Amino acid sequence: MESDSTSNYEAIVHKKIKEMGEKGISQQELARSVGLPIREISSIIKRLVEKKLIIKKAVKENGKNIVKLFAVDNNYNINIYINLNGLDEIPCLSCKSLTKCGNGIHVSPQTCSKLSGWIIEKALS
Ligand code: SF4
Fold this sequence. Notes:
The protein is of the alpha+beta class. The protein has two domains: about 5-70, Orthogonal Bundle (Arc Repressor Mutant, subunit A); about 85-125, no CATH class. It is built from four helices and three strands, in the order αβααββα. Helix 1 crosses helix 3 (about 40-50) and helix 2 packs across helix 3 (about 40-50). The mean pLDDT is about 90. Belongs to the eukaryotic RPC34/RPC39 RNA polymerase subunit family.
């Protein structure tokens, strides 16, 4: 489990990387700007990468390849609408074999004629 100070440092580092936006920030710049030792920054970066909050990317600056850190935009704003009409007609809801049914076993959705028939009927209607 993470200590409070560890997660605080993580939040500070993550915020700084986010602030840099598309410009990104190198690990050395980051260490200087947040005032943490490079070793501490390295382990925080590793954790943020594992959590998929940031990515490392090589960019060319002044003819040199530099590894920079970029925040990952996880703020998706997508509306998905699902038509639930007819959901109560799915044969599984009234099936006596429901508790015995599963992938890869004798009674399964892959081999069920009731389910296949219902799907085909819905697709054709
Ligand atoms: S897939 Fe077939 S057997 Fe399995 S629960 Fe649904 S209707 Fe029943």
